[in-house]
Structure formats: structure tokens, C-alpha cells
Amino acid sequence: VQLQASGGGLVQAGGSLRLSCAASGSIFGISVMGWYRQAPGKQREPVASIIGGGGTNYADSVKGRFTISRDITKNTVWLQMNSLKPEDTAVYYCHVRLVTKFETWGQGTLVTVSS
To answer: 57 pLDDT exceeds 90?
Structure first.
């Protein structure tokens, strides 16, 4: 199973970006798929996730600003990020856990928010 993430870039504070992540390979079922981020000098932290049944979870710091969505038929998730803040600057990693308990990470995409 491989994850291909895209959509990072440089944006001014208050702006928007949309990340996408597509899973490919031998996928028999996805338990959860989502995004983590790691800012310089900090640990990787969860941002948003969507479970097999469609429920979503968000970090408190992004609630109301970020929205995760998916297309099950394409094994793809998107993270719509609005009202971006400089503290959202980080490398964003896509993550997936399958029903088989297998999990893997995407290559990371850099999001930079300037003040």
C-alpha cells in the first residue's frame, strides 16, 4: 500500500489550501485515514482523521477551520484548510490504517503560512 500526498505550498495567513492523499495497492478495507503534521522542533501530532464509517475527528487547534473528506471509491482523502495561521506551518503527513491493522505514511507535504 502506498500513499501519494499533494497540495502543500506557501500561503498568507487567512488563506486556504487543500491537501489530497490517494492510497493505492492491495487495499481490502480502510479503518482510518487522515493527516498528521510535524512543525520544526516539535513532535508529530494528529490533525484530522476519518474512519471507515465516515466519522471524523479533529485536533482542537483546527476545529472549525479544517475539513476532512473522502471518496471511498478512489481511496482518497482531502483536507481543506481555511483561515490558515502561521502556527499551522508544518510538514503534513497522510496516514492510513487498514482493517488488517497494517498502517503506513505518505511522504509528507510542506505547508508554510506567512504572517
So the answer is: yes
